[in-house]
Amino acid sequence: MKANEIMIKQVYTVNENDTVRSVIKKFMEYHISGLPVVNDSNEIVAYVSDGDIMRHIGKHHDIVFSTFAFITVVKGDDDDFAERTQKLLNLNIMEIAKQKVIKVLWDDDIENIATILGEKKIKKLPVEHNGVLVGIISRGDVIRRSFESIL
Fold first, then answer.
1. Distance of CA 143 to the CA centre of its chain
2. Does the pLDDT of residue 59 top 90, yes or no?
3. Number of C-alpha atoms within 13 angstroms, CB side, residue 126?
4. pLDDT tens, 76-92?
């Protein structure tokens, strides 16, 4: 079975010029947790997940090295949280998205896709054909298609 047989063809995306605000709105509207970031030619240039956003709204941790132990110092207070979240909304998505995107080709085998999803511990893989985004495959898609004929 190939990627183009199991992928979801209607993919929600964000443009590389969008803000974090527009990404969060899509997360909420479509009940999703990650989106491919594309350019005007529909080429995949990054991927943004709820984890990328979470890293920016959480308190900043500094690691202090001492002779006896590593100590984590949490910086920030509640006032910083409101300020951080407001600043985050107006950032360009490319400032927080992962620009090294793991993706598969539309004719990759399901076994290869399952291996990547499992080993890289990611939830979704964008599918590319001729350099452009054509679909997305989740762990659930692979599991459903792998077992649908025998259950």
1. 20
2. no
3. 27
4. 555 577 787 888 899 99
Look up residue 74 and give its DSSP letter. Answer: E
- Between CA 13 and CA 90, with CA 86 as vertex, the angle to 5 degrees is 45
Rounded Cα distance, 95 and 82, in Å: 19
In percent, the amount of the chain with pLDDT more than 90 equals 73
Q: Which CATH architecture has domain 3-147?
A: Roll (3.10)
From CA 106, how far away is CA 6, in angstroms rounded? 10
Confidence band of 71 (pLDDT split at 50, 70, 90): low
Q: Which amino acid is at 47?
A: Y
SS3 110: helix
Do 51 and 96 meet the contact criterion of CB atoms below 8 Å apart? no
Residues in the chain: 151
Whether the model clears a pTM of 0.85, i.e. scores above it, the answer is no
Number of H helices, E strands in the chain: 6, 8
DSSP 38: E
The secondary structure of 8-23 as a DSSP string is BSS---EETT-BHHHH
Q: What is the mean pLDDT of residues 118-127?
A: 94
Residues 6+ apart with CB under 8 A from 27: 33, 35, 50
